[in-house]
Write a sequence for this structure.
């Protein structure tokens, strides 16, 4: 047999989101991140701006986070990362520059 047993696979919806929420992450469904930049708050390192991806009139909101994780295979992530680096300039061009 090849593959894994029924429901034994580690997937985003079955395992990883559950563990993220269990460790304090807040999951916001149907949202589109528009900017990630350094935060001005003492306890947060990043300010993440997002908007609802399904509503006609999109209001932006900002949250502050200690850490941000980008998932490279998720729809729209590459577009966001390139936009942050090339258009908005809020993402460093290399990892060495970020340190």
């Amino acid at each position: 047999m090849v593959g894994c047993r029924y429901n034994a696979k580690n997937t985003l919806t079955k395992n990883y989101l559950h563990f993220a929420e269990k460790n304090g992450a807040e999951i916001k469904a149907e949202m589109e991140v528009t900017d990630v930049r350094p935060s001005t708050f003492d306890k947060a390192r990043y300010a993440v701006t997002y908007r609802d991806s399904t509503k006609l009139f999109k209001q932006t909101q900002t949250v502050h986070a200690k850490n941000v994780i980008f998932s490279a295979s998720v729809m729209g992530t590459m577009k966001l990362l390139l936009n942050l680096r090339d258009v908005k300039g809020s993402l460093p061009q290399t990892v060495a520059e970020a340190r």
In short: The beta strands are 31-38, 46-52, 60-65.
